[in-house]
Amino acid sequence: MSKPRKSQTPEQTPEGYVASGSSPPPFKPTPKPIEGMPRMTDSQRQSLRESIEKHGVLEQLHFCVNGTILDGHERWAVTQELGIKNFTYKVYSAMTEDQRIALAIELNSQRKTITLEQRQKLLELYVKAAPHKSSREVAEAVGVHHSTAARVKRRVALATPTVGRDGKVYPRPASTAAHTIQGARKAAKDLARLPAGAIQGSATGRKINKANFEHAKSEMANDVPVFTRDDYRLIHGDFEKEAASLEDSILDLGLGDPPWAWNRDELKAYMETYFRLLKPGGLAAIYCGIHQIGEMSIAADLAGLKHWSAASCKNQKPHRGVAKDGMINSSWRIVMIFVKPGGETPKALNWLTNWIDVLEVPSETGVKPHEWAQPLEESKLLLKGLGRSGWLVGDLTMGSATSGVACVEFGARYIGYEIKEVNYRIASKRIADALNAKKKQAG
Which fold has domain 232-442? Predict the structure, then answer.
């Protein structure tokens, strides 16, 4: 049986020195994981333990000269658990915290087990730790394309404030590119409307438009008047919790636009609430994304609602993307209409006279109260075709209460739920304004 190897004399290198043998490092290793660094899963750690137990430590560990572990936290932990002292390690000379982070990321990025998402996180951490390195140096260190590294460097630079010679932190001045004089003037006006520091560094027109929309939305939520009309009740909170106190079968009509990213379980809870609150024979008109039609139909069926009809809604001037007011536009939208079985339905509505299956409304202008707000005229057409004056209409995800404003103008009663406070405040202001406008019109 061969004798254990004695510790070798450390081999000096430009980066530090390498030592191997049966003796542990000449210091007490100190674990110091870097926040954001990918961690092993339980299964990966178990595989590592089995490998080390069978073959020993095959990949060397890396330490700072002060004992801080640079790379190999899990390998070091396993060696301590198994009592293994014979392994190869590399020790680096003294370095700054940013240098330590950058080197640790370089070592981790060389592994094949790093996923694409983890590599993206490492890339951003590396750029912050080594901002002086070029895009190609960053790309080589982390293992990405140089264009990806350049894009992340620009994003990190824009998010990093400028520190002056006096030590004070100054926001980066906002700027944007324009191809015409008119475009430059418009961009200047858009930037001037924003509060100081809202945008730093270079920004696209879309980013400036979005920032202006958020600023206008914030201002709209201030100085909200209070109204106590029982006919129009707005509740701040999650509809599942808040609507539980309502008695069954009180709604004549449901109008809603739930998040289009909801899964089947979320949609099922939404539909079950409508099923409980709707009167027998009551209808629920629900906006639906193109890719959500199947899930919406299944959720409604599981809740007990039956498909009754559908409508296609479109703008007179179709367009897509984010408009200057922050509204996310699409060329057309689907409204699926469900019925709660058990009562006289549609015949009593004279729907053949009032209802059409294609609703075309003008594209709205001005600042929208909510980025997903549907056109007011569209809600009014839905009410005209499906509802009656004096009915109680419910919206479980009202947003900025466009459906509620339509109910005020149409003469229907309304109850709405909204989980986000800023949207709830805007909704309250819009309902109060609509009630005041209707009062002035009548008087």
Answer: Rossmann fold (3.40.50)
